[in-house]
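Quarterly update, task 2.4: zinc ion-bound model.
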Amino acid sequence: MLLKTTLPPDAPLFTRLCSSDVLIVVCFLHQTLISHSSILLYSLLLVNELRLLTASHRVISQHLVFALVTTKRLVTLNVNFNFLKAQWARLRVVHVHSAFWALRVTFVLFVQLSQSPWQEGMKQVLSSSCETVVMLFGMACVISHITHLLHRAIAAFLCLETDTEAGSMGATSGVLFFILALQTGLLGMGPEQKLSRLYRNCCLLLTAVLHFTHGLVHPPLMSLSASHSSSLHRHSRALLVAMVLLVIPSVWLRWLWAQHSVSTWLLAMTAFSVEIIIKTLVSLLIYGLFMLDAYLSTFWESLDDYVYCIQAAGSSFEFICGIFLFCNGAWIVVFESGGVIRAVMMAIHAYFNIFMQAKKGWRTFVLRRTAVRKINLLPQATAEQLREHDDVCAICFQELTSACMTSCKHLFHGVCLRKWLYIRDECPMCHHAIFAQQ
Ligand SMILES: [Zn+2]
Ligand SMILES: [Zn+2]
């Protein structure tokens, strides 16, 4: 038989057949045969996949690079990817693989439990659940289903409308799990090693889920505080999720450090967890400041500076974490286990989490510095001018207790005008240049 199974060699042929990846071929053939197009394409993909099954993970990584190159070529050849996407949805690739995985794991479970003691059997089941590329993909599909459900549950709890992006957390964690497994060479490992690797990968995945959760709870926290919403249960629910995001990583970190000795994995886990805690703290602090502002009757001029400082501190910390994780990854590549996939992932991490972050942060900083300088050049309105003006600030519609005067004699809060300057150099009222005389 082409494919390896965990079953004893003397098992009946039907049993061996059912437990092997041949099932997936049957599922696909069934689906493809009832359709009229794309049979060729999927058979090709399938043959390719079957070929991969017997290959070691090193071959797979070479294969992936090859696939990437081919994809690039296809893009330049202007192949319609909507077609592939439609086929992906129509053939229910994710559902078929999940069902296949669940079926096969159940099957192995029955066989193992009837043969070996409970604990040993479970170990065998776990290690066989990610035995081949197809099984690994099936597992990734199941994980993506679970995280998708989790995403919807959290969104419902936070009273968010489930939008079209609701699947993003599910899809991303599925892909992440799959890449992580290939990157760490899960397929080529022995049962014991595989189990410990699987556990470590799942821990990393869980921190990613916590990061997603923060991404879910941050916008409602900001909008609730900024819009001065009085809906108590929405506030308390958002705050509860934020508290959970503070408690889980801290308790977890303490437990991990007590259980494991220092390793690159533990350091990466620590960096990820601390990052979540810091991000959540930043969200909560800004939320607190906005809430305080809502209860103050006067215009709080320095609020914007506080918010900027907190955000800048948070972003700097995230940036440091990014660099630390990069060094950690470089250490793994050089001293522990190299590989094309890991190197590619590191390059992606370096580009998005380090380079782009630094560029964005620096741009915001420069923009703000120039705006502050420009505002300082404008004259402050005198008490008499303010009395004469007798109106609110045209940008924020709040009372003017102090104001800057533009060259066109319009009055605004310094902070409001500064934010406006990030976008354009004209007076928001009359569209004259604000700095005509300079
Ligand atoms: Zn204003
Ligand atoms: Zn004006």
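Highlight for this quarter: The beta strands are 404-405, 411-412.
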